[in-house]
Amino acid sequence: MRIGLFSDTYVPQVNGVATTVHHLAEELERMGHEVYVFCPRVHRRHRDKPNVIRFPAIIFPFERQHRIAFGLPARARRVLPRLEIVHSHTEFSLGTLALWAAKVFRVPHIHTYHTHYVIYRHYLPPPFRPSRRLTEALVAAYCNRCDAVTVESRAMEEELRRYGVRVPVYRYPYGVDLRQYAGPLEHDMRRELGLPAGAKVCLYVGRIAKEKNLSFLLSAFAEAAKRRDDLYLVVVGGGPFFRTFTEERDRLGLSERVILAGYVRGKRLIDYYRGADLFVFASKTETLGLVVIEAMAAGLPVVCLGEMGVTEVMKPGDTGIFAPEDPVGFAEAMLKVLEDRALRERLREGA
Q1: Cβ distance 273 to 203 under 8 Å?
Q2: φ, ψ for residue 267 (rounded to 5)?
Q3: Rounded to two decimals, what is the model's pTM?
């Protein structure tokens, strides 16, 4: 089958949607399908596989990590009429192209709803920021123009139904390729980051963004760090909240204990998961929580808030602990896992 995947973000960009679409394309190819990825151009230095069709793009002014694609490259014009199914992963620039292609060439259109946009409206300044109700209506309008919608969790299925989505909605949570987690460690996180011998390492992976609830996570880590001098937090990722996050870290006196590792990719990221003692996550907006799945795939116990899609991928008491949204309570959950070796090993095995 000739399948078109349409996304406004794709590797080498680092985020959950880009990673998911990349893995989906690889798995569909492995199954014998002919897959094309339609996505914006990020920079010219990146070498793509032949099935990736890049579009001219401009930077989204209110969130500079994102792109708005435009135009219709000659190669896209040749491939679009040959598609047998359209699968969109965005409602914006290339999502609009997906709607057009499905209608003009009369092929089925599946849409995956990845992002809880109601929570992300703060990226738009007030003159451009839609109300919650308008945002919900726009999402429903897009979904209802597709033949079916997939979501990654029951929470998002219920959310879309509440918006007024009438087409079939199916739950298909994405996972990770466990084959990448096998074999010996190739990258020593502790040595690369200069962490002291015997350090207890908590790891966060994800966008450094307001909606990830990182101010709360810093406060919780500060409480835990008061009780253990050997405790460190490694933060992997980047994003629009980076400067504020760094200022808050320094104000709390944690500049030596909270290590900003920047973007880490591929096998190095997997080895960072495998080299840590605990994964910590405080987001309340995840449609699934791919980084939680990645942590568990590496056998890393998780302490997180029991919110949204995360509740469907982590089993409390088996692979991790749901902590309260209270800095002291969250810190106590962290310390409980770190200081109870039997519990930590049981959670590793469960993960």
Answers
A1: yes
A2: -65, -30
A3: 0.86
pLDDT, mean of residues 335-349: 93
**Of 3.40.190.10, 2.60.200.30, 3.40.50.2000, 3.30.465.10, which CATH number belongs to 2-171?**
3.40.50.2000
Residue 37, amino acid: V
Q: Any residues with CB less than 8 A from the CB of 201 and at least 6 apart, and which?
A: 189, 190, 195, 232, 233, 234, 275, 276, 277, 278
Tokens 């451009």 map to which residue?
Answer: 128
Q: Please give the Cα distance from 12 to 20 (Å, whole number).
A: 12
pLDDT for the residue 194: 96
Q: What is the pLDDT of residues 135-174, one digit of tens each?
A: 999 999 999 999 999 999 898 999 999 999 999 999 998 8
pLDDT at 274 over 90: yes
Give the span between the Cα atoms of 279 and 185, in whole angstroms: 18
80, 111, 106, 133: which is closest to 17 by C-alpha? Answer: 111
Domain ranges of the chain: 2-171, 186-350
Q: Is the peptide bond before 12 cis (omega within 30 degrees of 0)?
A: yes
- DSSP-assigned states of every residue in 159-170: HHHHHT--S-EE
The pLDDT of residue 44 is 67
